[in-house]
Amino acid sequence: MKEMVGSYEAGGRCMTLRMEARYPTSDGRHDLHRAIVVVGLASESKDKLVGRAFTDGGDMHDYEVECQGACLEFDDQSPDHGTAWKRVRKVREGYEECLYVDRGDGLEPYYRIEMQRAREAAGQ
Length: 124
What we know:
globular, mainly beta, 1 helix, 3% helix
């Protein structure tokens, strides 16, 4: 399960995303991850987006975010801690998130998540 809450900050100059993801483990428990991401314009450019993620494990990751129409794309960290993929690319468009991985022969789909607004999920 993945939940994201986003909001515009600093007069609309940046966006924050709070995320929580739960992954089932082989022993029947859940691996819980929480993070906050801040995305905004790079200081040296008026059209280049950058992001910084802060994780509950104490890590910090910087991203160059590409905007392709309504899509945001960026190279990401591997969701599988034991896999040494050559590249991981995340694509977000509206309420859909796709992850692509490169095992050495090009990017291929790994997962696709369709999300919905909280009000729609609650039937409001």
